[in-house]
């Protein structure tokens, strides 16, 4: 199949593509005027629940910049629909009734993904149809702890006091919650692959909430199970575990096909941790896109050079693109990466 020979999937497999592939985390979104135009007419949740509109916004950055992969337009928190948790976006997520006590946890339901999340699978199908094999489509989910943290905190957090308190005071309850979320996520990602996703990314955006030792005890076993069960679906699995060198070493222990690297470490140093026999993804500081073009060129080139010493490298940011980014700077970045 032609898609298998695209630069992105070649890099995921550790083969040598004609150029370093790139896509950007949050590449579909508010920094694009064409996205804001659609969002002026529908709410974020309506957008996520309308497959044709999901396909339209998923393709916007592909059409404009020629990225080497598309990522499904959705959110890591849509999965709450299968657990009976209500979330609102304004635009940051807010859960009116956070899950804090044993009784709250017991109140959660865990429906089969197909019952409540069919609209996501329909969105995957709509994206695949619209892409017509131009580039591969990445499906995704939040990692079990990052997903749980939004339901426990009720929103984003700086210190994750409720999440960590549950882990430290009620480890069996916290472990049981992550276990159930993991089982649902496996089912959810299976549905995305069956609907046509060509690769999967697991977002552990808030891994650094836990110390390395606590992450190993309370979180890592669930990520390991998630990765190993979804690898059986036959598409590459990218784990983005944002944090420090210690967490990166744990990311390697999951055996994910591709390891995402945050922006706060040099890619060469990250490779010393994960090993040059690994495929890595990353890791330009998203705010570097606010620098003059020559500086963007310098930084991107240095990341590409470090990436050439790895088994494979997919160029990306080290976290999501800022909504204040000038699309012209993104265009410059794409030109630099594609011509390097
Ligand atoms: O008003 C709007 O248009 C909503 C803004 C927005 C968008 C565009 C949200 C709310 N989510 C999304 C889309 C989204 N979210 C995508 C698909 C688009 C793409 O990547 O091109 C993806 C993959 C996500 C994943 C996501 N959502 C993550 C993991 C990635 C990361 O940035 O770390 C997280 C943590 C979320 C939660 C979330 N959803 C929305 C916001 C503003 C947030 C972050 C809140 C916080 O800082 O805690």
List keywords for this structure.
340 residues; alpha/beta; TIM Barrel; 7-stranded parallel β-sheet; two-stranded antiparallel sheet; 15 helices; 9 strands; binds coproporphyrinogen I
**What is the CATH T-level topology?**
TIM Barrel
Number of domains: 1
- The top-level CATH class is Alpha Beta
| Small molecules in complex | coproporphyrinogen I
Q: In percent, how much strand structure appears in the residues?
A: 5-15%
- The number of helical segments is 15
Give average pLDDT, whole number: 97
Largest sheet: 7 strands, parallel
- List SSEs in N-to-C order: HHHHEEEHHHEHHHEHEHEHEHEH
What's the total number of strands?
9
Distance between the termini: 27 Å
Rg over CA atoms: 19 Å
SS class: alpha/beta
Unreliable residue runs = none
Helix fraction bin:
40-55%
Task: Summarize this entry quickly.
This protein is α/β, with parallel strands linked by helices and 340 residues long. The chain contains 15 helices and 9 strands. The model has no long low-confidence stretch (mean pLDDT 97).
Outline the structure in words.
With 340 residues, this protein is of the alpha/beta class. It has one domain (7-339): Alpha-Beta Barrel (TIM Barrel). It contains 15 helices and nine strands. The chain has helices at 7-12, 33-39, 44-48, 51-65, 102-107, 113-116, 118-131, 144-153, 161-169, 171-195, 212-231, 245-253, 267-274, 293-307, 327-339; strands spanning 70-71, 87-89, 93-95, 137-142, 199-204, 237-241, 258-260, 279-284, 312-317. The protein has a seven-stranded parallel β-sheet with strand order 1-4-5-6-7-8-9. It starts with 6 loop residues before the first helix and ends with a helix. The mean pLDDT is 97. It binds coproporphyrinogen I.
